[in-house]
């Protein structure tokens, strides 16, 4: 019997036989229009800007000052008077900044991304160094440009997955250059640019996701190749699709291993108490405060924090395998019946949202093709292997959540009542994801729906 990957690289003479007019253009699945690179996928092919030009240096120096002063969360236990004064001094400096002009920023996507990253980091530093008894009034020098920049990028004015992961990395050692340009960065050759806590733990948390994105590039190529074969649909195509799906399952298993490896560099207690609170969005604010953007006429409403659910790579796997019609909604009911996964697309770079829409327009979905060809047991097994690998990835995600959020939260609840009223208030909060979700219920619901997508062989 031929190995599963025998047909992965065999020449194909009848590549376009059976292609229907108007079919999805799979050649654009990695294209400039969608900001998807053949080497780095949803991450940019070159390290993101590490600093804005001189016109906006005041923003950069404000962020530098926050990181260099090692500003502390206001909910930190035993916060000293010196730490409180340091934070207030920095916030006062931010309030006195001028409202910088933004017209030149709008001509460059790279500048806009860096500006969004810097301003949202400043905003989260500002909000989460405030005492919980204080109202959240985001000063005009930050709120006005941030809302305008976010409008241009079609992103919410809040820290997102792209701010923490996609556009927050650099390489440690120079990359090798080939005839086709620079190679993709090695998974162990990455570092983060900016962090809230400045800890290795925070960096490893970001880099675990970055490594998943880079390893997932092969999954994107397998999707493209599979979709090409779906339009041929003959026996050779079926054998090739079978091989591609087996290989896709193998890649997703690698993603699972990378996800679990975060345990090697990120301590759960450090993450829960010193890193995660910086990420909270308005719907996870520990004091349920409303965020008010001063100087902004129409107040933003989509203000959830960053979440792994904002990764277009994982959404792409769902769409490709036909797993994206999950009916799990937040708390059982969503006002507009959108699932959380769909709501998370609001927080993705707009080009990546367009990529997912493009992928979803495929008139020959792989799941439908497999259902119509279930008599081919090898193809069915390959598809189920791919689905099962995604289910196992979600099992691993639940495991990480249990280690990094559920267990520390449980320990916090069982501790003796603490004299610090703000720490006590935080301990009372319902367990939510940084994206504002009912964390455990949602993750298990999505995992179970994925498991249900496994197909039974025909009778």
TrEMBL record:
The keyword Iron applies. Heme b binds at residue 397. One of its GO terms (cellular component) is cytoplasm. Pfam families: IDO. This is Indoleamine 2,3-dioxygenase. It comes from the Eukaryota. PANTHER family: INDOLEAMINE 2,3-DIOXYGENASE. It comes from Suillus plorans. Belongs to the indoleamine 2,3-dioxygenase family. GO terms for biological process: 'de novo' NAD+ biosynthetic process from L-tryptophan; L-tryptophan catabolic process to kynurenine. Keywords: Heme, Iron, Metal-binding. The keyword Heme applies. GO terms for molecular function: heme binding; indoleamine 2,3-dioxygenase activity; metal ion binding.
